[in-house]
């Protein structure tokens, strides 16, 4: 059974605020090539919130990405500062929130890796 968790975040410039309830067991590290390119980072962490559990204030810019399969996917970010906020389907049934802008990010530990076929060869070898 999954635990719900309240999260909130503000983009870098402050124009967009989001609050949501996510399912803790949906937190994952995504290594897909879209995440790599759009984030400018080797991977991106996400947490999933259903549409009825998210409140967005401000107007995120939405970029529609069309996959090779023809599927459309909305990628949202702040048009002012570029902070990446979420991805969603065209019907907006659920939201994949980027955990990096959420205040609770330290508690949002990914439980799964996805799209490991495109992950960095060094990902298992980061020493401290
Ligand atoms: Zn902003
Ligand atoms: Zn991804």
The number of strands is 10
Task: Give the percentage of residues in beta strands.
Answer: 35-45%
The helix/strand class is mainly beta
Our Rg estimate from Cα atoms comes to 14 Å
Instruction: Name the shape in a single word.
Output: globular
Average the pLDDT over all residues and give the rounded result: 94
Number of helices: 1
Which ligands, by name, code or SMILES, are bound? zinc ion
Helicity, as a percent range: under 10%
CATH architectural grouping: Beta Complex
Strand order of the largest sheet: 6-7-8-9-4-3-10
CATH fold-level label? Metal Binding Protein, Guanine Nucleotide Exchange Factor, Chain A
Distance linking N and C termini: 33 Å
Low-confidence stretches: none
H/E series: EEEHEEEEEEE
Domains counted in the coordinates: how many?
1
Main sheet, how many strands, which sense, barrel?
Answer: 7 strands, mixed
């Amino acid at each position: 059974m999954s635990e719900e968790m309240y999260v909130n975040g503000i983009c870098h410039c402050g124009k967009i605020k989001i609050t949501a309830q996510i399912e803790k067991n949906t937190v994952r590290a995504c290594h897909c090539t879209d995440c790599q390119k759009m984030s400018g980072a080797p991977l991106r962490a996400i947490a999933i919130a259903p549409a009825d559990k998210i409140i967005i204030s401000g107007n995120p810019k939405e970029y529609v990405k069309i996959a090779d399969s023809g599927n459309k996917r909305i990628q949202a970010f702040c048009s002012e500062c570029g902070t990446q906020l979420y991805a969603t389907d065209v019907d907006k049934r659920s939201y994949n929130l980027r955990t990096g802008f959420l205040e609770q990010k330290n508690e949002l530990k990914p439980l799964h890796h996805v799209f490991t076929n495109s992950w960095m060869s060094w990902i298992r070898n980061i020493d401290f």
